[in-house]
Known about the structure:
Structural class: alpha+beta
Number of strands: 12
Distance between the termini: 36 Å
Oligomer: single chain
Number of domains: 3
Order of helices and strands: EHHEEEHEHEEHEEEHHHHEEHHH
Amino acid sequence: MQKNYKIVDFNDKILSNILKNEYPDIFAQMNKEDYILEYDSFVEFRELIYEGDTVGFLTLDYFMNSKFLSCLNECYILPEYRGKGILFKIIKELLEEDSLRFYVRRPNQAFINFLLKHDLALKVAPDIISSHIKFIIKGEEIYSNKNIKRLYRKPNSNSSELIYYMAGFHMGLCSSFGVDPLTEIVKDNNTLMFSLPRKTDLKKFNLRKKLKTLSVNKINEIHYEYAIHNDMISEFNKSVSSRINENNDDVLIIGHGEETLIFENLKPNDAVRIDHAVEEEFRNSNLLYSSCETRFEYLLNHPEYIDKRIDVNLTEGFDSCPFCGVSLGDEPYCKTCGQALKPISLKSMFNEVIKNFKL
């Protein structure tokens, strides 16, 4: 099947310059619609093509220095070509590609409507959406106001660079939301954090007044509404995963080009199982945020350990890793498998309602 996009390599990696110089008609229409670019850098630029014409673009980026982790940064399609399935075909292809995990960088409301239209997101309550595709939010993009400021720690250079995975989106605030398991930004690990809206939405929906009214009570209400639908969200995500993976082969390909590796002993569902295992171990304090990728890549190479769980007292010292058995030095986590070796303090909230709840 012919692709509806073309990857274009530019020497200039500044998106705004490329659009001004190479795609002036698209750039002019973006300005007319007040579409504001927020992520000027990228790893991959794609022309979006419909019946031979270039009708838009999207940019992809890597994060955590891994080609396995890809995110959509910016995307724009000319108005007359929307609704023709151009973007959906590309998103579906990215989700089906076993060589990476695909995310979206801080989406706007229009993208959430796109996900809802194509059954990639679920409306769980008025204004509250759960997305099958997780969103990437940097610490510096977390919103706060005087009503909720007391929930947050004092920001520093480290917290501003942290990366968070979020699946929730509030349509009224045009904000992604999620938790901070290791309490780097908020004081309680189950306090919802909200992202700053995209500037396009901020202007279009006049959100400044709404954001200023965000309160602790409102945050707790949103959290509760999301949490009580946890079973429905889990079933929805299982359904989408099955739909995406149903036509995949039994061979899982990791990497690109000359770096491609073929894991004949892995099946497509193993990639999902690995993703879930890493998330579970992170939430159970057996992995640090910085060691999640290490565990993910370790399990790709050692699928026999996907279901392995350990019950250890992390206040004790270890000469060898309790998970993979390699010798250890004085380090916060095992450099081979990612196992945390220092105590991590986590709290609980909402008792049975939040128990086992994945945001």
